[in-house]
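Subject: Sanity check before I submit

Could someone independently write out the structure tokens for this chain? I want to compare against mine line by line before I put it in a report. The sequence has 74 residues.
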Amino acid sequence: MKHVIPACLFVIALRLSGCTGEGAKEMFETAQFEERQNNQVHAKQLYEAIIKDFPNSEYAKKAGERLAQLSQGK
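---
Independent answer below. Compare away.
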């Protein structure tokens, strides 16, 4: 739980800064970190945000694939 607040602040900062592909990469890495911390809810939120905010990035495709895997319990 103590990792959730810094991660949320990080995501907010990214959105406010107007980052492009680099922001998508950082969000994707944060989502992966959240998965390793067994915080799938926040990881899914980050993956969904990547798809919404960076739809044409390579990370949007990766995020979509990861969301599909998570929904299958993988």
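---
OP: Matches mine. For the report I'm noting this point. The two ends are 22 Å apart (CA to CA).
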